[in-house]
Structure formats: structure tokens, C-alpha cells
Amino acid sequence: MMNGGGFTEMAKYLVTANYTTEGLRGLAKDKASGRKAAIVAALKGLGGKLESLHYAFGDTDVFVLCDFPDSVSAAALGLAVSASGMVKTRTIPLLTVEEVDAALDKTVKYRAPGA
């Protein structure tokens, strides 16, 4: 996306992750700081950047807020991480307020089911 300064901003994504039992053993060995370093390196290799990383209680083990230059790069990370078999990821593209306003300004010809 272009900003007012004329350069392309990266898109923001929220990646949620859940460790498998084997993945939790790897986390215990690497420590959270080791996993963060691995995430930063993977993002950098795809032209992305880490904004924040949080571990949590509950249904989701990890929340990663990051920037990617494009959806293909975001998908590549999710596929590679999930293919390891140690972590299952979900990648959620995030929209800015301005992007939602632009979407709301578009005319959509849609008929609801049964209408």
C-alpha cells in the first residue's frame, strides 16, 4: 500500500500459533528468546519485520504481530512453520482504518441468499 510519502508500506498481519507436544519440548529447549530470534530471522528472510511477540494462556499459545511486503510472503511463512509439524499457525491480514473506510466507499452489487 502507498502512503502519503510515496513509498510502499508493508501490510500488517496477526499470526496465531499453537505448539504440538513435540513443539513444546522444542520451546523448552530453545526458550522463548530462542524462538523469538528464529521468528525474527524468518521474517527478515522474507522481507518482513516483527512488531511484537506474545505468549498467552488459553486456546492460543503465541501471538505474533508482524509486517510483510505481500500476502505471498505471509503465506510462505505460515506454510513453512506449519509444515514443521511442531506448530500450527493461522495468519490473519489486518486492515487499517483507512482501508476499511475505502472498502466502505465501494459500491457492491450483492443479493443476500433468499432475498
Q: Short summary of the structure?
A:
Helices cover 41% and strands 27% of the residues. It is α+β, with helices and mostly antiparallel strands and 115 residues long.
Describe this structure in words.
By secondary structure, this protein is α+β, with helices and mostly antiparallel strands. It has three helices and four strands. The chain has helices spanning 21-45, 71-83, 97-105, and strands at residues 11-19, 49-55, 62-68, 87-94. Strands 2-3-1-4 form a four-stranded antiparallel sheet.
Which terms would index this structure?
alpha+beta; four-stranded antiparallel β-sheet; elongated; 3 helices; 4 strands; 115 residues
What is the makeup of the main sheet?
Answer: 4 strands, antiparallel
Low-confidence stretches are: none
Question: Tally the helices: what do you get?
Answer: 3
Spatial order of the strands in the main sheet?
Answer: 2-3-1-4
